[in-house]
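Bench log. Compound arrived from synthesis this morning; before running ITC I wanted a structural hypothesis for how magnesium ion sits in the protein. Inputs:
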Amino acid sequence: MARLSPPSPAAAGPAKRSARPAPKPPEAAGSGHTPPPGWHARIDPAPLLPEPEPYRLLGTPAARDLDPALLRRLYEELVRGRRYNRQATALTQQGRLAVYPSSTGQEACQVAAALALRPQDWLFPSYRDTLAVVARGVDPVQALTLLRGDWHTGYDPRARHVAPLCTPLATQLPHAVGLAHAARLAGDDTVALAMVGDGGTSEGDFHEALNFAAVWRAPVVFLIQNNGFAISVPLEKQTAAPSLAHKAVGYGMPGRLVDGNDAPAVHQVLTEAIERAAAGGGPTLVEAVTYRIDAHTNADDATRYRDAAEVEAWCAHDPIDLLERELRDRNLIDDAESKAVADGAEALAARLREEMNADPVLDPMELFDHVYAEQTTQLREQAAQLRAELDAEEDR
Amino acid sequence: MSTATAPASAPATRKPATMAQALRQALRDALADDPHVHVMGEDVGTLGGVFRITDGLTKEFGPDRVTDTPLAEAGILGTAVGMAMYGLRPVVEMQFDAFAYPALEQLISHVARMRNRTRGAMPLPITIRIPYGGGIGGVEHHSDSSEAYYLHTPGLHVVTPATVADAYGLLRASIASDDPVVFLEPKRLYWSKADWSSDAPQSVPPLGRAVVRRTGRSATLITYGPSLPVCLEAAEAGRQEGWELEVVDLRSLVPFDDETVCASVRRTGRAVVVHESSGFGGAGAEIAARVTERCFHHLEAPVLRVAGFDIPYPPPMLERYHLPGVDRVLDAVARLQWEVN
Ligand SMILES: Cc1ncc(C[n+]2csc(CCOP(=O)(O)OP(=O)(O)O)c2C)c(N)n1
Ligand SMILES: [Mg+2]
């Protein structure tokens, strides 16, 4: 893949935007004023500014330089991801999943985030990011444990360096910063990538995480999936900022704006941000502009707050279609290969159906096992009470 | 480990020390013993904290181990979560009781449940130090007793020392714990003194063990943290009324030591719970209920509570009317139905 060379730590983002010297204080600029004591220009905000329009690769001349192997891999994961979303939503209708927040339409962000990370890096997903978790290698059935309605994450976060799916909005972002900070202190080459929605950017934890990350120069990448809505609330009720990527500037980190349905573009922007973080350049905020094609979850009715025309417009800008067009134009995929990818996705869906249709093995006594390292007297007593209730139930 | 009585007494090297000094020594020893321990918070570096508990530590251990963070409590605790996920053992300082509230979401939704929701794979050994309580003439927002908010949340330990030796021992035990601990430091006892030496082998009490501070057979005063000195004074004054009051210092609200508390109440047959936070829905309500449930047939009188009133913490010019003092404690003891016998 033709990638822009990794920027120097001091540079803001891609090489095209070179770091400029900080502006001179008014006095030096000849205004005749003496600035307040101790005031001095800190950093030049200009190199931190995001692109004026979402960055695109597909459909541009630069796309021709993209690595075919990467494009094929992205394509396969996008197709699997879409099928996974459809199957998971179907399982909610059959009562096999308690809830599923689908990422249909956002697969490019999900897949690119997972594939851009190196094995030693960490992913901090939100509830909508099951696809990213699965694309990073977590077992597709285990990844659904909480959404199935079970009591635990289903996977060991340390195995694949994937934090638990996080539901309280934006609260996973400071975790990513802390982990990245700890890794940096240890001298480890580890980057954390944290995902958040457009609505989540209004939360205090978003602000605090970005501020800590920038002050500590933590090796962390924030990926906002701006899918236009926070449940029913559109972006214009969420923020008056020029873009969500612009928020980066106030913290002193670069913002990047990317077409969230252009999988290679998202992959490239995230890869650059990860390389920058790993090289000691500090955090980056990436806004990926995308769209949630499905309702917020299976329990939501999106017709109450948005037009069919808007959804149709986004369907015409579909992440799988965009990538497939590129692959076909360059003869990187033929019908047989395309069918093989679809068959693989079907097999994944079949496995989901089969394993999710089996009743889970539940042991209510386990609920007392991990509240503390050692069970307290009180929990021992309560566990004994539940044990007795269960025994009585069996005798009945 | 420790016994249920106060630490064994004085080798010759002991000299007067304040609770603040003992806490600082505990942090220093923890930092020296374990490279995973990190201290972080507002003003904990150069200044040494507004109560000077971390004085000198950043100089000794460097700003990467003892860190002045940006001013944001949720961010401090949230980043501590990530640091603990990576294997560190963060000790977070919240500047004041009421300024810890922005961190409640991180505390309740993540710190308290990460071990559980990962089936034990990801424990969070975080200690959250919070100066709490009144009696220091603080203006509003500087004197809250916030223990009830914490003890209601499964997954947290809630610990509060009342003596100089316990300040050291309990803080060491809290930092060594693989579970998150809310460590409540009674502000008005920061400058309390006792003969103590960190060189002497300390009895590091296990978390969750109460201790009988004074024995007596008339009634049990159950208390913790800032109210212990009040209860000890009341017990002394009660002798003039002919009462021999036993005083139990809980030390840990979670885990709760039912055994020590109930053994005492079964001996005395009467109990008063004393704390300075508001009574309604407070720790005393839980304690009174537990004692009643477990000791009903030994009780000669209802378990009474002596607490702060159910009002926002009053301003310093009026706080003495709010805080339970010796008289309010003894008034409660007087109401324990002595004449019925
Ligand atoms: C702190 C908090 N407040 C409210 C909610 C309820 N809630 C869940 S998802 C959601 C919308 C989030 O929108 P956005 O951040 O844009 O993410 P998206 O769902 O679009 O992926 C809300 C309000 C929550 N999970 N956490
Ligand atoms: Mg959204």
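What the model suggests: Chain A is about 40% helix and 10% strand. Strands of chain A lie at 122-124, 192-197, 220-226, 229-230, 233-234, 255-259, 284-289.
ITC booked for Thursday regardless.
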